[in-house]
Here is the input.
Amino acid sequence: GAVVSQHPSRVICKSGTSVKIECRSLDFQATTMFWYRQFPKKSLMLMATSNEGSKATYEQGVEKDKFLINHASLTLSTLTVTSAHPEDSSFYICSARGTKRGGYNEQFFGPGTRLTVL
Amino acid sequence: KNQVEQSPQSLIILEGKNCTLQCNYTVSPFSNLRWYKQDTGRGPVSLTIMTFSENTKSNGRYTATLDADTKQSSLHITASQLSDSASYICVVAAGNNRLAFGKGNQVVVIP
Here is the structure.
């Protein structure tokens, strides 16, 4: 399957600081990337969808000014958590979707980034 | 509302035994159903993908079934191994490519 990487895998920051998380598709061009948040023992919750070169579409209840998403190229999307607070502590997972493989618009998930805000 | 319900929420099985995980969904229109394995602290990894015309699909010791009429799917794990300990997530893709995620079946394999 296709490979999606995330960096960093883990980050601990102080309350009020901003944190940037990178998501890269390593062996395919991702026309669409997705950002999810997952709390312990909960399912993945879609935060936003981004298409290369255009503004991200945010899910209801997700603050676009707090979670800045940039999808500047077909292999890179970034999520910046601005002025992070302890309640933003979570597991953030990105996924990428490229051209159809086997007839499916399959999404490939990154390994996730564990954010802890002190 | 598109929903995906999984059962059991968690289970413990002895190494070498088989187990079956269940997924019921109400997603419409249906595009495809996927099973993912998610290890603790890692992203989901795809096990199987099935469209409405596929009744069963295997990936090694994992076999998924789909009944599009009753909107049910199952994932069968054969001869479980310690490395099978993980959360297994049922994901249903709607016709607009939006994904509906189940909460996962937490499987713990003990020696």
Summary: Chain B touches chain A at residues 32, 36, 41-46, 49, 51, 89, 93, 97-99, 101-104, 106 (CB under 8 Å). Chain B has a mean pLDDT of 94. Chain B has no helices and eleven strands.
